[in-house]
Every structure is written in structure tokens, then in C-alpha cells.
Amino acid sequence: MLKINEIFKSIQGESTYAGLPCTFIRLSGCNLRCTYCDTNYAYYHGREIPDEEIISKIEEFGVKLVEFTGGEPLLQEETPRLLKTLLDKGYTVLIETNGSICIGCLDKRLNIIMDYKSPKSGMSERMRPKNFEFLKRTDQIKFVLMDESDYLWAKDVIFSNSLHEKFDNILMSPAYGKLAPKSLVSWILRDNLPVRMQLQIHKYIWSADEREGV
Question: Which segments within the chain are labelled E, that is strand?
Fold first, then answer.
């Protein structure tokens, strides 16, 4: 039984899976309050749904790529069990987690997308550098940035932890409506930084305040 804010099918808007059809399970509740948060409607609202009903809805959508997001999906102790069940059923399962909760207990078959919050998010002090040790080389680390000071901070995190040598997928995103994508691209090119710049493509297909998908 999990407290779910919404279940919907859309295209994956971010990460190396961007553009692919995906079923999203958005869990209720978050332990952080980022300044740029675009899913604050998931802080409190949702309903308790049995695992069997969640799985049935996923099967109804008929997509083999599934993402658990939030809020923060790891706040609910029952989440890892359902993740394992779906992996056992042959689904490709992504989990987007905010970097503040230990990920050491997660099934190694998962595709982890771990945010690492910048100073301008207001939540950088809540991050757990220890989590880098639990990631596989193919997992993804995401920095959402609001200005050049955030970018320089993220660059320092990358090099001081040798993330560019340990992981294949380091992502940088401009906070939507806060940082111009062109500015972020110019800094990455200036520094030849070995990262993947990404946009939230769902916000360019639908409006920023419109719920995407079906």
C-alpha cells in the first residue's frame, strides 16, 4: 500500500530516457522544499492504493518503462518492495530520488536518477555525498541549476568527487523559467565540462502548468 498522488502515461521528459513512452507513479510527500519545485501539489495530496491496483494500472497502460517519482518516493518504506516486484515482472524501472535519503538498500537492477540539490535550491545542505558510493556507473546524477553560481558549485562537486570518471551520465538542467538554457550551454562549452545538458521537454510540449500525458 502506497500513498499515490497520480499515475499517468506520458513521454519521459528528462534523463537519458527522454522521449520514450513511460508510465509515471508519482508518490505523495516530500522532505525537501526546493525553491524551484514544480510538483508541490504532491506534498500532501494523494490516496492509499494497494500494490495490486498500482500494478494493474501499469499493465493497463501497456508500457514497459516505469518511473517512480514524487515528491520523494523513498519516504515511503513500502516503495522498494513494489520496485522489486516490477523488476521481477520484466519492467525497466526508473526511480527519481532527491539525494537526501540513503539509496543503499535499493535493488541494483533499478535505474536511479539522483538529484543533487544546488545552493540556490535552498536544500544543498540536506544532500548525502555518501550516496555516490551506492550508484552504479550507468545510474544518473542530475543537477538543476538557477544561475552561474549554482553551475560553478556543481562543477566543483563533480571534480572534487571525480564523478566524471565514475559515472557515464551526469546531467545538468536549467531550472525552468529561472535560467536560460542558452546560458547554461555557454558555460558548459566554455569549460568543456563532460556533462549532458538537458531540458524538461514535456514543458515544451505541454505548458509548464499543464498536466501532461493521459
Answer: 2-11, 21-27, 47-49, 65-69, 92-97, 111-115, 140-145, 169-174, 196-197
